[in-house]
Amino acid sequence: MKFFNYLVIIALLFTACKKEEVQIQPEENISVTDSLKLTKKDISLVNYKDIGLDVNTNPIISNWQAYLNIVNGVEKIKTPDFTFFNADVDLFNSSVKDFEETIPEDINTEPVRARVLVLKTMLYKFQEIESLQTSTKQEKLLAIQQVFVALSNLNLQINKKIEKDNQTIIKPY
Predict the structure, then answer these.
(1) pLDDT digit string (tens) for 118-166?
(2) Contact present, 61 and 67 (Cβ < 8 Å)
(3) In sequence order, what DSSP letters do the residues of 100-140 get, joined into one string?
(4) What distances in angstroms separate CA 96 from CA 48, 101, 109, one per listed residue?
(5) How far separated are the first and last CA of the chain, in Å rounded?
(6) What pLDDT, in 10s, does the model give residues 44-83?
(7) Distance CA 76, CA 84 (A)
């Protein structure tokens, strides 16, 4: 019983002690940086091999308007301007659909169509990640890298196709 009395007294002493409330004074000059905002410097640090089109591809590519629209949209990512992906979803979807359906006959081969499909997938993935509010900066940068790599691989495949077509191999017979 004595133990119980001591326990009650100790409990009363702890609850009866004066509790001091600590007031936190807000600081006047607190600047919050947006850690999700992508800058031109962040995008310039993305690691990929930028492969451009060869001069020999100009006659074919200059008439492929859907490709030029997609390339302009991807180039705007570097600034970072994502209006091609965010502004009008129907326009973006129709541009990507035209891009896949209007491949010029001179380069319409399985490897080129495969690269077009990969680029289309990466564009949709980037658009989705960019439109989500919960996407992190790293997820956005990874999606940007995937778009850049897919475009470079498409350009490489177009260059290979045109180079192969321009080769004249003399057979000995």
Answers:
(1) 999 999 999 999 988 888 999 999 999 999 999 999 999 999 999 998 8
(2) yes
(3) HH---GGG-SHHHHHHHHHHHHHHHHHHHHHH-TT--HHHH
(4) 22, 9, 18
(5) 116
(6) 889 999 999 999 999 999 999 999 999 999 999 998 888 8
(7) 8
User: Please, is 98 exposed, middle or buried when counting C-beta atoms within 10 Å of its C-beta (0-12, 13-18, 19+)?
Assistant: middle
State the amino acid at position 128 in one-letter form: E
Task: Tell me how crowded residue 66 is: count the other CB atoms within 10 A of its CB.
Answer: 18
Please report, as a single letter, which amino acid is at residue 31: S
